[in-house]
Write a structure and sequence with these properties.
Number of helices: 2
Distance between the termini: 64 Å
Structural class: mainly alpha
Strand content: under 5%
Order of helices and strands: HH
Radius of gyration: 23 Å
Largest sheet: none
Shape: elongated
Amino acid sequence: MEYFKAEVMEMCHRENLYQIDLLHGSKNRITEREYWAKRKGQAALNQKCAKLIYKELHMHPFSVAGLGMTTGQA
């Protein structure tokens, strides 16, 4: 079984694919529930951040490309 794990890891490395280390497990193990809670929490933060950025960009009607510079500034 160790041989097949090593072969899969080598194949993924050759194809430039991300692969976890199958031979040496992580010392920091998390449950599947913890993993998905973190993913959903990060997705919610990303969505909230995107809304804030959108709001900020559209709050200044005279800004250039949303950078906060008025059209008179260069």
